[in-house]
Amino acid sequence: MPDVGQANDWDAFSEPGAIAIMRHALAPGIGDPPEFTIDDCDTQRNLDERGRAQATAIGAALREKGISFDVVFTSQWCRTRETAELLEIGPVTAAPSLNSFFADFSTQDQQTAETNALIAETDDRLMLVTHQVNISALTGQGTRSGEVLIIRPTVNGVQVLGSILIQP
After folding, report:
1. What start and end residues bound the annotated signal peptide (predicted)?
2. How far is CA 23 from CA 54, 133, 155, in A?
3. What distance in Å separates the CA atoms of residue 167 and residue 76, rounded to the nearest whole number?
4. CA angle, 78 as apex, 73 and 83 as ends, to 5°?
5. Which of 14, 83, 131, 135 makes a 20 to 30 Å CA pair with 26?
6. Burial class, 120, CB count within 10 angstroms (exposed 0-12 / middle 13-18 / buried 19+)
């Protein structure tokens, strides 16, 4: 079993209105190659074996704690979709507002507003699987690969309640 690491705020999931937002599991490198195409995983930076094992371990830990989700929203990038599927904690649905804007920060404000709206309009227990830049824009906090932040919507955005990190 991978190291659970220092962040282990499992109790934050019991807070009223708590949802999860996760940075995709370990996918070595930074950004995507210049020939990146959203519909072709061969052109993207993807999870490696450690990333797949990390996503599987995070899902197992969540299930062991009895934590499940009505829907898992994910960006359309292959590394986020694969992470969401390997978690095996709820049905996976693409949400374009969670797509990375690392290569074009001009869409940051619009995508962050759309993500806040997605959270606000969904009464279900949610998990979002996305990218570092999206999480930073939404929460004001950085995350490591595979880190899960437990957040709660507020009138001004979101409040970070805690985090979970299982190292690859």
Report:
1. none
2. 12, 9, 24
3. 24
4. 55
5. 14
6. exposed
Domain assignment present for 160: yes
Q: At 83, which helix (H) or strand (E)?
A: helix 78-87
Is pLDDT at 30 greater than 80 in this prediction? yes
CATH number at residue 103: 3.40.50.1240
In a domain, 4, yes or no: no
Binding residues for substrate: 79
Q: What is the pLDDT of residues 87-119, one digit of tens each?
A: 999 999 999 999 999 988 999 999 999 999 999
Better pLDDT: 103 or 84: 84
b/e for 127-162, b at 16 or more Cβ within 10 A? bbbbbbbbbebbbeeebebbbbbbbebeeebbebbb
Can you tell me the mean pLDDT for 54-80? Answer: 97
**Rounded CA separation 32/34 (Å):** 7
Look up the domain containing 103 and give its range: 10-30+37-164
Establish if 1 belongs to a structural domain.
no
Whole-prediction pTM: 0.94
